[in-house]
Amino acid sequence: xxxxxxxxxxxxxxxxxxxxxxxxxxxxxxxxxxxxxxxxxxxxxxxxxxxxxxxxxxxxxxxxxxxxxxxxxxxxxxxxxxxxxxxxxxxxxxxxxxxxxxxxxxxxxxxxxxxxxxxxxxxxxxxxxxxxxxxxxxxxxxxxxxxxxxxxxxxxxxxxxxxxxxxxxxxxxxxxxxxxxxxxxxxxxxxxxxxxxxxxxxxxxxxxxxxxxxxxxxxxxxxxxxxxxxxxxxxxxxxxxxxxxxxxxxxxxxxxxxxxxxxxxxxxxxxxxxxxxxxxxxxxxxxxxxxxxxxxxxxxxxxxxxxxxxxxxxxxxxxxxxxxxxxxxxxxxxxxxxxxxxxxxxxxxxxxxxxxxxxxxxxxxxxxxxxxxxxxxxxxxxxxxxxxxxxxxxxxxxxxxxxxxxxxxxxxxxxxxxxxxxxxxxxxxxxxxxxxxxxxxxxxxxxxxxxxxxxxxxxxxxxx
Length: 464
Fold this sequence. Notes:
Blueprint (H helix, E strand, L loop, with lengths): L2 E3 L11 E7 L2 H11 L4 H4 L1 H4 L11 H14 L7 E9 L8 E12 L4 E9 L5 E10 L6 E3 L13 H9 L6 E6 L4 H12 L3 E7 L1 H11 L7 E4 L3 H13 L5 E4 L4 H8 L13 E7 L7 E4 L9 H17 L6 E5 L10 H14 L7 E6 L1 H5 L1 H6 L12 E3 L3 H14 L3 E7 L5 E2 L7 H18 L5
Parallel strand pairs: 8-9, 8-11, 9-10, 11-18, 13-16, 14-15, 14-16
Antiparallel strand pairs: 1-7, 2-4, 3-6, 4-5, 5-6, 12-13, 12-17, 17-18
Helix pairs in contact: 5-15, 6-15, 8-9
């Protein structure tokens, strides 16, 4: 129906009817909850709804009332209608998947006021009454016929869904003892305490004790449940945390209010650090609401201009991380500006070599392809348009960037332009290193801690 047209008061006949049919989806419930602000758990909390009187999520009662309003405003009488009165009686709930038929029937016309009274009924697929009632409206006196307005599609995006899934995966795991390095500001201290409350870490707070306690007072936090190891300054805090990890006293490190270089200097120290036979690298675990799967970007914080050999280790570290998070065969997109191997663009040559290294078993556990431009990595349609046939295009889990500059900019763009949450983890050391930014939200910090916990328990063979 391309036109929307009313029935004027003079045209309306007693007994005339109009109706619509709608099947309830969870999206309907979410949209109504967002619009109305009604987040009663009966409608939006599945765990709660299972235990209430209806044993499952049901629609808001006024969702059905809105359907009645829709019939009155678009069909009978239609455009120009003014609501005067409405009574509704609710007989039974509407559950997900129920198909509701709304019908209005004219029972009375009032000449003096051009008012129309209509019986209203909403019934389910079993022809049972869901809502009954009476509406009184002022009907239009002039004919109105207009092109039907096409409404925009609503896309619902729930931030943090990916991190929530990771946190749920840790439910049966013991938290990891974590050295929190120099937590002397509110964000880093709050992130550590929230992670402890979520049973992800057992924090040991390392740094100048007066500054840590002052930050706790400012944040309104009680630090009595947590151990504080006093040091004079941030350098000493980093060295102390690394020493505790070397001695097996902690299972992870967490960056507080100090610069990444300061912490990593202690970590990579040749004699006293946490080096292994693997190259140390960083992965951003990005929860982008518009992307249907976890998204890992590497390396965007440690290796500035990685060599081909460095990239091999960077990729292997990321694949191993994906395995610990339950992704058995991650797809790895090796990014460049173009999709073809070109002598003048080094990253395309590296991509081709890395794919051949995977063919020869020098990189294991994942499916590699490259060079791929970013659009091909995230969009199968873009790859098809460019004639790129790839098992990775449009389905990539891990995005390997040419250098730190490109990776850092990509991660920040996703965070600030795509409303993504960004969690960071350093791999290849003796213990996971939770590398957060001072601008990170608490949820991103919790996501980083969940990743560290899953990685640590995966290494010990714990069943996830």
